[in-house]
Write a structure and sequence with these properties.
Helices cover 39% and strands 19% of the residues. It is an alpha/beta fold and 171 residues long. The chain binds ligand AR6. This is O-acetyl-ADP-ribose deacetylase (Regulator of RNase III).
């Protein structure tokens, strides 16, 4: 597995799957979720509504997969990160579960290349450095990691990008 770091917009990536930092309604929102829904168009929203009708949305830490509509990626994996509430509400484990469950879904689907945004570090206020450390460790610990050719961390803001650069270079 190659771990890659990119600075930019996840909606431009032609990977097998991009991960969306969604909310439990699955109906879209701001941040990266808004950008993904805007660019993917109606097919994505309809796929999300179909999942909602079957299983009433997506719980924090879980993930669901849909078509990617008009995006260059083939699939969107929607995961719901925890809202940071000070760190005593299981936020760290819930964030790790987002990465783990997204990879498990991808594995089931035969996905080889996948890109993650910095889940929970925007509107949900998870501390960026801690979130980056959890993201990297969870990806490195995933078993079987050889199932994936390429895992991309895509950072939209400079602060996340430089945190990832530092942490990825530490080993
Ligand atoms: N490409 C990649 N990363 C992006 C992009 C983009 N186009 N746009 C923003 N980011 P956020 P959260 C980064 O707020 O904290 C939504 O309303 C951004 O810089 O999108 O998990 C959902 O519906 C930040 O580092 O997600 C939920 O209600 C990261 O994406 C709620 O926000 C995550 O920021 C989820 O909050």
């Amino acid at each position: 597995m190659t771990i890659e770091l990119i600075k930019g917009d996840i909606t431009t990536l032609a990977v097998d799957a991009i991960v969306n930092a969604a909310n439990s309604s699955l109906l879209g929102g701001g941040g990266v979720d808004g950008a993904i829904h805007r660019k993917a168009g109606k097919a994505l929203l309809e796929a999300c509504i179909a999942i909602r009708n079957k299983q009433s949305g997506c719980a924090t830490g879980n993930a669901v997969i849909t078509t990617a509509g008009e995006l260059p990626a083939k699939y969107v994996i929607h995961t719901v990160g925890p809202v940071w509430q000070g760190g005593q509400k299981g936020e760290e484990e819930l964030l790790a579960r987002c990465y783990r469950n997204s990879l498990a879904l991808a594995l089931d689907q035969g996905i080889k290349t996948i890109a993650f945004p910095n889940i929970s570090t925007g509107i949900y206020h998870f501390p960026k450095k801690l979130a980056a450390a959890i993201a990297i460790q969870t990806i490195r610990d995933f078993n079987p990691r050889d199932a994936f050719e390429r895992v991309v961390f895509i950072c939209f803001d400079e602060e996340n990008y430089s945190l990832y650069q530092t942490l990825l270079n530490q080993e």
